[in-house]
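go over both lines:
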Amino acid sequence: AGGISTRVTVDVDGRKADANQLTFRLKYAYVGWTPEGSALTYHFGLLPTPILGFIEDTWGYRMQGTVAIDRNKYLSSSDFGFAVAGAWDDQAINVDVGVYNGETYSNAPGDNRKDVAGRVSVRLAKTDQGGRTGGLRATGFVSYGKSNGGETRQRMLGMLSYHAKALRLGAEYAVTKDDETKGRVMSAWGTYDLTDSPIGVMARVDQSDRDTDLDPVGVDLDSGTQTRLIAGVSYQLAPMVRLLLDADIVSAENGPASNSFEAANRSLYFHTEIKF
C-alpha cells in the first residue's frame, strides 16, 4: 500500500572445514518507495547493486554459480546504499543508479569513501519475451569510487544480449582499475530450451586478466589470463524445480598450473534450483 515495498534475504555461505560451521548473514534488507504515478522507485538499505542481478536474469542460470565479473571478485551483488530505478515505454529503457558503501555486504563498512554506480539498458528490438531483460538489448554499466585507504576503484561494462522465451544469447566486456592495476573480464554465453521438451542446454566461456599491463612468460595466477568453460544440460522436473548437470573447467595462460589448481578447477556439478 502507498507504493511501499520491503525485502529481507539471508545468505548462507559454504561450510568452513576448519570450524565445521556455516556463515549466516544478511544479503538484502531494504525498503523501497514508488510514488503514485511515478516511473521511479527509490531504495534505501542493503540493496542489489545495479548490474549483477540484471546479468543473472538475462543469463538465466544463476543456479550454476555467479556471473563472470562477480566470480572474479570485481563486483558484488549487494551493498549498503541509496538507489533510484526507473523504466519507460514498457521496459524499452530501464535504469538503476545509486550511491553505495563500496565494501559490499560481506565485508566491514570501511571508511567514509563511497562508490557511485549506474546501469542503463535499451531495447533495440522486441522478441516474444517481455520484462526488463527481454528483447535484443544494449546495456552499459559504470562504477567509480575509492576503496579503504583512498585507492581508485573503477568498473566499466558493456553487454549485448538477446532474450527470447527459448533462446538467450549474450556477450559482456568489462574493464577494471584498482589504483594503477588494470584488469579485463570477458564473457559470452548461450542457452536454448528445446521445443515442447523439459530439456535445455547451456554454455558459457569467461576470460579474465587481472593485470593487462603484464605479459607473464609462465603461469602466473595473479596477472596471467585465465579461461573458464561451462557447459551443461538442464531438466525441468516441475514448474518450480529445475535440475542441471554441468562441467566447469578453468585453464591458465602459458600451460597447466599446479596440480592443486587443476584439482580445484575441473569439476562436474549436479545443481538443483527450487523457486518459491
In short: The helical segments are 52-59, 68-71, 259-264.
